[in-house]
TrEMBL record:
Name of the molecule in the record: Nitronate monooxygenase domain-containing protein
Organism per entry: Friedmanniomyces endolithicus
Residues covered by region (Disordered): 327-369
Molecular function per GO: nitronate monooxygenase activity
One Pfam family linked to the record: NMO
The keyword Flavoprotein is annotated on this UniProt entry: yes
Organism phylogeny: Eukaryota, Fungi, Dikarya, Ascomycota, Pezizomycotina
Keyword set includes 4Fe-4S: no
Amino acid sequence: MPFNTVLTRKLGIRVPVVQGGMQWVGYAEMAAAVSNAGGLGIITALTQPSPEDLRKEIRKCKTMTKYPFGVNLTLLPAMVPPDYGAYAQVVLDEGIRIVETAGNSPGPIIKQLKQANPPCVILHKCTTIRHALSAVKLGVDFLSIDGFECAGHVGETDITNLILLSRARQTMPVPFIASGGFADGQGLAAALSLGAEGINMGTRFMCTVESPIHNSIKQAIVDADETDTELVLRRWKNTSRLFKNKVTEQATKIERESTTGKFEEVAPYVSGKRGREVFINGDKDFGVWTAGQVIGLIHDIPTCEELISRIETEAIETLSKASSLIVDKQPEPDIAGKSMGDMSANPSSDHNKKVPGEAQIYDIGKSKL
């Protein structure tokens, strides 16, 4: 049963579920599997070493799905930054008109994408309301509101989604989707109830059959609890939520104990190159890799089709159940004992009596504490 939200209408998808951009995960196979299942798959641009390699990956994805898919462009600080403009131009040249953006100073890229004919639909990821309002001024179509539960860069404000999504509902002049902490249909139903038009999932999609990472890492996610993540690099205001392992323990120890505060001391431990190797060799302790607190909700490794179908069913059942809680007439109470209208149940005559070892609960009776 298709959903009808601003997100599904705008993107032409059946289920309001977006597979967020993920470094070393967002390849054509992953994106196509999600799109074929009814959600929106996304290729991660910077997983490709060059703009031309991104072009090849987009073309490959086109052969694997007839449904809409997008591209993620994340702008992060770097000594030698990638040519973001060239990556964006490839996206436009290849006819992709759905782009997820994130990171610092996205204005020039958003302008480039919006000047296309037709212009791109842009989903911009933010961890604060302040940044979200700034993105609105740049002309984004959707905001992806990223709560503190999320994997990767969590920001520095530590606001979880129950508050962040409600603040977005109160203040955002454009539609938004919920990101961070979502894995099932109950989560989708909750997000929709809080005002979101859909959800964005990353860690949950890492743990699917089509995810291009080593099966041992998928199993590590299944075996993990919600407490098995670590916040790293907070000292340098670049806080990231990572899977808790031997390397994150070493990194946080340096972060706590360093007397110089130089990033160079911790840099070897948070190398992205080592993190990529984790997904290839299957050793969860080889390097750092991102994972959200949602790992505590993940208990299997389904196909994307099975996962999205399950989310769809669960969300419909949850929303229907919630709707059934509203009735025309309040039913009779099930509480045991006499009704409140029965004067023999009224202990008013005992209100001034003090009974050792007992407390009086007015209008109900006496109860042992």
